[in-house]
Amino acid sequence: MMANVIAWANTKGGVGKTTSVMLTAGILARRGEKVEVRDMDPSAGATKWKKMAAESGNPLPFPVVSANVENVSDPSETGADWVLIDTPPLESAVIQAGINAADLVIITTQPSSLDVNRALATAETVNGPMAVLVTRVNPNTVAWRDCKELLKEKKLPVLESTIKARESIRKASGTADIPHGSGYEEEVDEITSFFDQAEAE
Ligand SMILES: Nc1ncnc2c1ncn2[C@@H]1O[C@H](COP(=O)(O)OP(=O)(O)OP(=O)(O)O)[C@@H](O)[C@H]1O
Ligand SMILES: [Mg+2]
Fold first, then answer.
1. In this predicted structure, what is the pLDDT of residue 199?
2. Cα 48 to ligand 2 centroid, rounded to whole Å
3. How many CB atoms lie within 10 A of CB 119?
4. In testing the pocket of ligand 1, which one of 15, 19, 85, 134 has its CB within 8 Å of the most ligand atoms?
5. Do 145 and 162 touch, CB atoms closer than 8 A?
6. pLDDT value at position 5?
7. Under CATH, which number does the domain 4-200 receive?
8. What is the pTM of this model?
9. Which ligand has an atom closest to residue 107 CA?
10. Model confidence over 129-141: pLDDT tens digits?
């Protein structure tokens, strides 16, 4: 069976790509799925996360491997059924290779107009299925309301699940912890149902 390949992307930095990849991987692994994370970012946030978790004595339940424009589309060497790709900010050739390798692209953004505009530009480089994931949401703010308006106006597919701004999510960095009520469980439900539907078609 071919693995389900998903890439998280936005040319904008600091929008929650690495956090989303790692928590999504952790949730899939906890559900008994075979997952592999591919770190395409030269600053190696996912790889550092893995090392920190291992050094703390509570290692991640899935492998994190380095990937580049040459090998990102290769079959999994760890036997994974889910390949989650973390892409860097700014480096468009690397981001594009990650996007091209994926069956589904999650355009990750924070609810600021700057970040959403970068998300829109990133979305234009995607040919296949994609969905926007909004992270670090503070409900009941003008920024969040404006963000929803803008995404609707631009007719981009948006995941129903949103990720709230939470200290527990920030603190999960470098650990194998999955914070409760983060929104990532619902994100994983949406992702798995996307692949269930794709398989049925
Ligand atoms: N939902 C959240 N609530 C609070 N803090 C968050 C949340 N998501 C991410 N963060 C924090 O925001 C910072 C940036 O997140 P992250 O590293 O995941 O973004 P990124 O898009 O991968 O960044 P880069 O483009 O630099 O690789 C990190 O310190 C992370 O812990
Ligand atoms: Mg990152």
1. 84
2. 10
3. 27
4. 19
5. no
6. 98
7. 3.40.50.300
8. 0.97
9. 1
10. 999 999 999 999 9
Q: Where are the domains of the chain?
A: 4-200
8 A C-beta contact, residue 96 and residue 128:
no
Amino acid at 120: L
Residue range 37-66: average pLDDT? 98
Assign 3-class secondary structure to the chain. CCCEEEEEECCCCCCCHHHHHHHHHHHHHHCCCCEEEEECCCCCHHHHHHHHHHHCCCCCCCCEEECCCCCCCCCCCCCCCEEEEECCCCCHHHHHHHHHHCCEEEEEECCCHHHHHHHHHHHCCCCCCEEEEECCECCCCHHHHHHHHHHHHCCCCECCCCCECCHHHHHCCCCCCCCCCCCHHHHHHHHHHHHHHHHHC
Ligand 1 atom nearest 20 alpha carbon: 18
Confidence label for 1 from pLDDT (cuts 50, 70 and 90):
low
Residue whose tokens read 């078609």:
201
Contact partners, residue 70, CB within 8 Å, separation at least 6 = none
Name the residue with tokens 């999504």: 24
